[in-house]
Amino acid sequence: MPKPTIWFTTSLVKHGSRCWIVLPDETTQLWGERSHYYLAGELAGRPFRGRAERKHHQIILPVGAAWLRDNGVQPAQEFPCELYLESPLVEELADDIRTAIQADLQAQRFFEDLAPFYRKSYLRWIESARTPATRARRIAETVQSLREGRMQR
């Protein structure tokens, strides 16, 4: 399944020592309404990963000084962007895991807000089960943990 991706051209906004790009308005239409988004893709043709956040009525993606230095991008310089939500996404999960998480809206929302590192940790634990019974138990425990708002089991 291809990842929903946005392509756009932008330039950096610099405010004090902080730099960011503003994501297009269709971001929430494509990826849903969230307080933040963990993104991957390319800025100016170079790999990038980061956490977009809300700033007033916009969604911004902070860009660090080291990335700017290493990739030669300057404020006010226009460049192309290609961004998508970082995996794993609920839609990409194995059927049994996806069904269990989607059955609990609170667990699903929390899973979607977790950093990819924590999502992957839960999934590695489930996938390491040696028997179907253990896998089913771990899926149930994962959903319970997510419902309770725990980042780790």
Structure write-up:
The chain is elongated and about 55 Å long. The protein has two domains: 5-85, AF2212/PG0164-like (Elongation Factor Tu (Ef-tu), domain 3, Beta Barrel), CATH 2.40.30.100; 90-147. It has a seven-stranded antiparallel beta sheet. The protein is an alpha+beta fold. The model has no long low-confidence stretch (mean pLDDT 93). The longest helix has 16 residues, at 132-147. It is built from six helices and seven strands; from the N terminus they run βββαβββαβαααα. It has helices at 27-31, 65-71, 95-102, 105-113, 116-127, 132-147; strands at residues 5-10, 13-15, 18-22, 36-43, 46-55, 58-62, 79-85. β4 (36-43) and β5 (46-55) form a beta hairpin.
Return the CATH architecture of the largest domain.
Beta Barrel
CATH topology of the largest domain: Elongation Factor Tu (Ef-tu), domain 3
Helix/strand order, N-terminal first:
EEEHEEEHEHHHH
Query: Largest beta sheet, briefly?
Result: 7 strands, antiparallel
Identify the CATH homologous superfamily of the largest domain. Answer: AF2212/PG0164-like
Count of β-strands: 7
Q: How large is the radius of gyration?
A: 18 Å
Helix content, binned percent: 25-40%
Basic shape:
elongated
Q: Residue ranges: pLDDT <50 for 5 or more in a row?
A: none
Distance between the termini: 28 Å
CATH class term of the largest domain: Mainly Beta
Nearest-integer average pLDDT: 93
- Given helix and strand content, the structural type is alpha+beta
